[in-house]
Amino acid sequence: MPMNLxxxxxxxxxxxxxxxxxxxxxDDLPEIIPLDQIHPxxxxxxxxxxxxxxxxxxxxxxxxxxxxxxxxxxxVILVQLIGEKVEHTGVVAGMSGSPVYxxxxxxxxxxxxxxxxxxEAIGGVTPIESMFDVEKAAAAAPGKVASETPGAPSAxxxxxxxxxxxxxxxxxxxxxxxxxQFLVPIETSLVSTGLYPETIAQFGKQLSAWGMSxxxxxxxxxxxxxxxxxxxxxxxxxxxxxxxxxxxxxxxTTVVGDRILACGHPIFGLGAVAMPLTxxxxxxxxxxxxxxxxxxxxxxxxxxxTQDRLTAVMGKLGPGPAMIPVDVQLVTPSSERNFHFEVIExxxxxxxxxxxxxxxxxxxxxxxxxxxxLALDGTIxxxxxxxxxxxxxFAPTDAPVPTGFFIASSVQSAFARIxxxxxxxxxxxxxxxxxxxxxxxxxxxxxxxxxxxxEVRPGETVAVKVQLRPYRGAPFIQEIPVTIPAQSARGNxxxxxxxxxxxxxxxxxxSGNSQSQLPGLEELINLLNRERQNDRxxxxxxxxxxxxxxxxxxxxxxxxxxxxxxxQRQNFGGARLLNQSKAGEWSVEMHQVISGERALTITxx
Length: 605
Known about the structure:
The chain is an alpha+beta fold. Helix content is about 20%, strand content about 40%. The chain has three domains: about 30-320, no CATH class; about 325-440, Ubiquitin-like (UB roll); about 445-605, no CATH class. Mean pLDDT is about 80; it is low at about 1-25, about 145-160 and about 570-575.
């Protein structure tokens, strides 16, 4: 078919696709220009905001088209921006999504820039046809959100944050940028308010791995005008809101009815999502030789981000999605302080966001940076299930890591295990935490351990004595009474005196990491709630007799009849047989963090 006949068919096809997704009038549809009509030397314009809410025009010229740059059939239009401002700033973080037009027709969104340490205003444009693929993907799986497949990889590329597209030598010669350059995705401005430098230092690397450029920003009062978006306006996607707020921001490419397309590349690449969509306002554009960026504030809630895919993000104007409420209470000997946040529900992001918000609250009090011991007491409420308990003690160490980070890591680990379960989709309803600071460093190491007698009889109780050395204190002895099981056979038993971490690790090894063998989420929660605490001293007795593990149940000293059944049936559900059994476990609350272990041998006569 001749080229001049192809164009009407293409335009009609795109209009048909858009009408299938959006019940709109023809006047609502943007007039577009297909990729095959864009050629080197064409002059066009892009629209973005440098300051305030004023959308400004940037002139540009096409250098060429890079075919299959981001993958099969994922082309990129290479352009050079022209004008006094862009020559000063280069391509700016937060500019991704800026709509590009030729002869008044929409061609795509600015999404790539030329490397770092350069202000050459050369960028890559995601074609509008590729951006419409996001709507096709959404229609193919209606109602799906990323949290419905916890722990599973997204059906789209997870992120293009680390993508590097070689800059062709022919264009390098034309533009004078030199060879060996790469096009990389434009960083996404991560607007944060209430975030302390200590928090950025601890979590900045995890966020930057997603292609985020951390930047202090602000919040603006909601306005009735917030939802009246135009191509070139800024939007934010809230991850956390409340006493702390974090929201990535980028530029709107097109608005079709109540739907928007933005960014021209993914935020996280999570596929179907549910994130609050807010209006974004540019305070100023900061020029930098390394990476210029927009300093932003976020305004009122205007809708929900529903898709986060390779070539664009898509949102729907209207109400926002439900978020998880988080309450953190900080208690010191002299004061009490309460924080309230809301975080998005996402298997990939919620663990990190809750840890970040918790840590940020902890470091907000000067008392927490003075060698305090921190006690955590809290719950994670999950719809239809027992609450997960968060109960532990954390002492400062000589390592250059704040004590609050240990609490944040513990909370993050609990969330990660909940969301990565293979049984069902967990719906977290609420998170409540109380963190209490105690002025001194409360910790003690196990120096030694011994028993009154090394030969015992079944049913006999023996005193296990443990010498502990507290931090900068005199050693003391703690006694733990241990009763030898009445059914113990003659021979040797191993007695392990240890801290919680060592015992949790030993029990996990003994059970063969039974989490994957559990029948459901409730059993996983029970397993989490049974884990040992840092402020207790443990004595655990092991014997060389078989243990039968069936789902979340441990059957030490398994009878031979049960073993015979297991031997005869190779696929006995989740049952496994181990050669060692835990004969008993005893503990004493010490009100300080215990570390270390000692192993003893006891002989049963």
